[in-house]
Structure formats: structure tokens, C-alpha cells
Design goal:
alpha/beta, Rossmann fold, 2 domains, 5-stranded mixed β-sheet, about 40% helix, about 20% strand, globular
Length: about 375
């Protein structure tokens, strides 16, 4: 199949809105927060202009926005919303209800620092605080991947074998408000890839009423948690399959969908990161290789489910990791480093792991800083 693309300059938020437009959700719940606001503003415009046939619900808070999406998901229709930072915190109760309740909602999170101190700039502390909420989390590196990940996200979340919400994450301002070229497929080809939501995970049936979220005993409670863990494992294969199918359809892939390698398969030092820092890391790898140093990159694209097998297999060939975190678990370390060290130890892999926390509060992390840090680690 030959898919036609239009090269368009757009912000990351515009790319997210286009992806939602082309996937044709039936319910969009909206509450503004910087730097996410322009996603739902664009979708409001598309609904007003008749380009999107959807119920656009303007609510009084972020908590209500996700509650509206939960109701729509329970009724068996495709749903979409977006949020950021303090708004995600305000949603907290419903984030866990959606995840543990297995509701296939797609919700981009435009990463922004958590207060105090008050900041509108980016780090990953907001979404990382919800890594245990039962949501699939994908961390994008550029505007193109925002569009592509959201299209894939509907397919992944709505698969009955998966049945869980999907959170594509994009760095505030660096992606959300920065204009870049996006190869935009047309609406028809995009929707053909996503498809109709014909066999909903959950659907209201007045002839067969049921209760969601009722009181349960320990046996049922533990079964539900076990089912969620097993679905997360199935999601790994689904993400890999969607990445491959997307590549066959549109000609673009992101590693295997879970991780992405840049540079040689084997090097003296592997830089591990997520989000836009991973994009900067590619330039750092190029610079260091020009200087004769042996460095590669392992980008963690999917943080939940955590790609343990891929990390372990890569670590077996590479004996030193430098993990760059843009968030921190206070009292311990950066979350990405913590989890990588844990899976390597569990699998008896002796690759050493150095960690650096960078970019908190919107601090710039240019490739030159990454390269300088990598040089220091190589000498240690």
C-alpha cells in the first residue's frame, strides 16, 4: 500500500490534535492547562468547524475531564483528553481508577514540572509519579513521534487482550510549542490504520446491567491485579506488533517499539535516556564518535510496560551504562536508573550503571553537556 504524505510544519501539540482528529474519538473532555491547552483548543476548533463528529465536553476541572472520559469508555466509545503537570495531579484519583479499571482512554501528557516552586517548564516528574497507575506510558522524542504514537495508542489501548489506558508523553514547550516538520498522512489512511472501535472492551447493556468498582474481597482483588500484570506483559508484544505494522503502513518505526538503539550495537559506553534528552543524545553520540570514542545510545521509548528483556539483552553486549534521568525518586535516585539497575541485578548481568539527573525545572540539556558527561564517565 502506498500512503501519501504532506510535509507540514507544526507544533507537537498540533501533531497530537491531528492524530486525535484522524482517529475520530466520539467523546473529548476538555480542561485547559499550560502547556497542554492548545491540543484541546485545536480539537474544539475541529468540532466547531464540522471536521470532527464528537461530543466535546467542557468541564470544570481536570478531575472531571477524566471522569467524563471514564463514563464514555464505560459506554463503549472511543475517548480522548489531554493534560499536564498539576492538572494530572488533580486527576490522580481517576488516573488510578482508569488504569486499574482497564479503561482504554488515550490521554497525552505534556510534561511540565510540579510545584512548588512554580514553573511552567519541563521535566518528567509529573508522568513518572503515575508510573504505577496501570497506564501504558510512551515517551516521545519529537513532533513526528507524537502523531505516530497517538495513532498507535488507540489500537493498543482498545485491544481487548490489553484493555488499559495509554499515556503518550511529550516534553512541554520543547515539543509541545516548538514547530518542526511532520510527514502527515491523509485522514483516510490514518483512520484506516486505526479502524473503527467496533468491539469495545466495556459496553453499557441495559438488558444485562453490571456494577463497576463495587466492593470486593481479597480473592477478587488479587485476581484483578494479577490480570493487570498479565495484560501489561501482553502489551509488550502488542506495542512491538503495532510498531512493525505502522512501519509497513507508513514507512516509519521506532526501534522495536519498546526501545530504540542509536549507533553501534556494541560500545564502551551506552547512554540511556527518554524523551527529548534521547534526541539530544544522538547528536552527542555522533560528536563523541567523531572524536574516536566508542559510545552508543539506548532510548527507552516505552517505560510502562518496562522493557526488561530488551534492556538485559543489550546490557549483555555493553558493559557500561550512563543513565540520564529527568525526574527523581526523592530519597533514592532517578527512576530510570533505579529500574535498570534492578532488572540487571535480577538477571545477573554485571554491566555497571552510572546515573546523572539532568534537566529538572526546564534546565537545558544540550548534546554538548551530555557528551562532556559521557567523557567523564568513560574515564572513571
Amino acid at each position: 500500500m502506498v500512503v501519501q504524505f504532506e510535509k507540514k510544519s507544526m507544533t507537537g501539540n498540533d501533531a497530537a490534535a491531528y492524530a486525535a482528529l484522524y482517529a475520530k474519538p466520539k467523546v473529548i473532555a476538555a480542561y485547559p492547562i499550560t502547556p497542554q491547552t492548545t491540543i484541546i483548543e485545536k480539537l474544539s476548533q475541529y468540532v466547531d468547524e464540522g471536521k470532527l463528529d464528537a461530543e466535546f465536553i467542557i468541564v470544570e476541572s481536570e478531575h472531571s475531564a477524566l471522569a467524563a472520559c471514564m463514563g464514555a469508555a464505560w459506554s463503549g466509545v472511543r475517548t480522548f483528553t489531554a493534560t499536564s503537570s498539576q492538572g494530572l495531579l488533580y486527576m490522580a484519583e481517576n488516573v488510578f481508577w482508569s488504569g486499574y479499571g482497564r479503561l482504554p482512554i488515550v490521554m497525552p501528557v505534556v510534561n511540565r514540572c510540579l510545584a512548588p516552586g512554580w514553573s511552567i517548564y519541563q521535566d518528567l516528574q509529573d508522568s513518572m509519579a503515575f508510573r504505577d497507575a496501570g497506564w501504558i506510558q510512551v515517551y516521545t522524542k519529537n513532533n513526528q513521534e507524537v502523531f505516530d504514537s497517538i495513532l498507535q495508542g488507540f489500537r493498543i489501548a482498545e485491544d481487548k487482550r490489553i484493555a488499559m489506558p495509554y499515556m503518550p508523553c511529550l516534553d512541554g514547550f520543547v515539543i509541545s510549542h516548538t514547530t518542526a516538520q511532520v510527514n502527515l498522512p491523509n485522514a483516510e489512511d490514518s483512520f484506516n490504520f486505526v479502524g473503527e472501535y467496533k468491539d469495545p472492551v466495556i459496553e453499557v447493556d441495559t438488558e444485562n446491567p453490571w456494577i463497576f468498582g463495587g466492593l470486593v474481597g481479597p480473592e477478587k482483588f488479587n485476581k484483578d491485579r494479577k490480570d493487570l500484570m498479565e495484560a501489561m506483559e501482553r502489551a509488550k508484544k502488542k506495542i512491538v506488533d503495532m510498531n512493525r505494522e505502522f512501519g509497513e503502513y507508513f514507512g516509519r518505526t521506532y526501534g522495536n517499539g519498546l526501545v530504540e538503539v542509536y549507533g553501534d550495537d556494541v560500545a564502551d559506553l551506552t547512554i540511556v535516556s527518554m524523551g527529548t534528552i534521547a534526541d539530544e543524545t544522538q547528536d552527542a553520540v555522533d560528536l563523541l564518535k567523531e572524536e574516536g570514542l566508542s559510545v552508543n545510545e539506548l532510548r527507552i521509548r516505552t517505560f510502562r510496560p518496562f522493557p526488561e528483556k530488551d534492556i538485559v539483552e543489550f546490557a549483555k553486549q555493553n558493559n557500561k551504562f550512563l543513565v540520564i534521568d529527568r525526574s527523581v525518586s526523592f530519597g533514592h535516585d532517578g527512576q530510570l536508573r533505579i529500574e535498570i539497575e534492578a532488572v540487571l541485578k535480577r538477571n545477573n548481568v554485571d554491566t555497571s550503571v552510572e546515573g546523572r539527573i539532568m534537566g529538572l525545572g526546564g534546565e537545558d540539556v544540550p548534546y554538548t553537556k551530555i557528551a562532556a558527561t559521557a567523557k567523564k564517565v568513560l574515564k572513571e
